[in-house]
Each structure stands twice: as C-alpha cells, then as structure tokens.
Design brief:
Layout lengths: L1 H26 L2 H21 L5 H8 L2 H11 L7 H18 L1
C-alpha cells in the first residue's frame, strides 16, 4: 500500500509541477517557479522510494497517469480548453493503466 501511495505522490508532484511552471510562464511570479522546481525535485524522490515496495513496471505504468492529471488540472486551474481527442487519449491511458493493474 505504501508503494502505491508514494507513486501517487510522485505523479501528483510531477503534474502539479507542470501546471505551476505554466502558471509561472504566464504570471511571472517567482513563488510559482520555486514551487514548480520543488515539485520536480520531489517527484523522482517519491518514485525511487516507491521502488522499494513495487516493481519498476508498476511504478512506470502508474506514472503514465501524469498526462491525465495534467489535463484535468489545466482545465480547472489554467482554464484551458480540452478537445475530444484529448479526452479520448486520457480515457485510453486510464483504461490501459486500469487493465494493467488488474
């Protein structure tokens, strides 16, 4: 269970880092940049810790959820438009990860 939690933390850290960096590019606030960098530093730390509990293929497969979470965060935080192909792609990624995890 700890491995899944750490992998989730890695995925969320990466996803938040991407969105925060894009916000920094728009707003030019230093705090956004620093927070994004911290998120990018924490993500591999969480991934390496997760590897103590899970196999590399499981951790790697779960990290493919980054795109899905970035898509959701971009829609709500950055107010970006999401098109059907992006939704279809995110759905296929989610289905693939779900099938693999079963």
């Amino acid at each position: 269970m700890m491995g899944y939690f750490l992998t989730l933390c890695a995925v969320l850290a990466t996803s938040f880092g991407v969105v925060l960096y894009k916000q920094y590019a728009i707003k030019k606030r230093l705090l956004l940049l620093v927070t994004a960098i911290i998120s990018f530093i924490l993500a591999p730390v969480f991934s390496f810790l997760a590897l103590k509990y899970l196999s590399v293929d499981t951790v790697y497969m779960m990290t493919s959820l980054n795109g899905l979470i970035v898509l959701i965060l971009s829609y709500y935080v950055l107010k970006e438009k999401v098109v059907r192909m992006q939704i279809l792609g995110a759905f296929l990624v989610f289905c693939g990860v779900s099938i693999y995890m079963v």
